[in-house]
Amino acid sequence: IEETLVLVKPDGVARNLTGEILRRIEAKGYSLVDLKLLQADRELLAEHYAEHEGKPFYEPLIEFMESGPIVAMRVAGNRVIEGFRVLAGTTDPTTAAPGSIRGDFGRDWGLSVQQNLVHGSDSPESAARELALWFS
Ligand code: GTP
Ligand code: MG
């Protein structure tokens, strides 16, 4: 059985969408293994987003992720890494498909960083690395 890291980003927590997001994960048949609410510090976020260092949206992204509490979840299930990415929808909330989390609830605020509600690991390697980081 595979595991993935799901984050409800600060916009999702602030908009009281944590329950709705978890409901969709559970409705799909995935299992919640661990969950916590935390304020992420810069060190953790820099490690988490190391692949984006140097990109124009990197600094605003880190600032956004520092701006409020995050809900981190360890979620298990068959092909859950790919499956949660489908539940989440594509990165840009404007074009994410209706029926997905980002498609149904994501808004384009015209800010310098896309506030797209959730994060999900994008590969088995990322999932292992990110779960170790957030649930050490
Ligand atoms: P995550 O699940 O959050 O990792 O999203 P993703 O895998 O769909 O996107 P990616 O890893 O490429 O980017 C991480 C995050 O950076 C995204 O979720 C956005 O919040 C932000 N981001 C990515 N690309 C852009 C971009 O081109 N412009 C801006 N402003 N933000 C971006
Ligand atoms: Mg990503």
From TrEMBL:
Q: Which InterPro entries match?
A: NDK-like_dom (IPR034907), NDK-like_dom_sf (IPR036850), Nucleoside_diP_kinase (IPR001564), Nucleoside_diP_kinase_AS (IPR023005)
Provide the reaction this enzyme catalyses: a ribonucleoside 5'-diphosphate + ATP = a ribonucleoside 5'-triphosphate + ADP; a 2'-deoxyribonucleoside 5'-diphosphate + ATP = a 2'-deoxyribonucleoside 5'-triphosphate + ADP
Q: Which cofactor does it need?
A: Mg(2+)
Chief localization: cytoplasm
Top EC class of this enzyme: transferase
Q: Where is the active site?
A: H119
Q: GO CC terms for this protein?
A: cytoplasm
The catalytic activity of this protein is classed by the Enzyme Commission as 2.7.4.6
Residues given in the record as ATP binding sites: K9, F57, R85, T91, R102, N116
Query: Where, per UniProt, does this protein localize?
Result: Cytoplasm
Q: Which NCBIfam families match?
A: PRK00668.1
Write out the function statement from the record: Major role in the synthesis of nucleoside triphosphates other than ATP. The ATP gamma phosphate is transferred to the NDP beta phosphate via a ping-pong mechanism, using a phosphorylated active-site intermediate.
Under HAMAP family, the record lists: NDP_kinase (MF_00451)
**What is this protein's name?**
Nucleoside diphosphate kinase
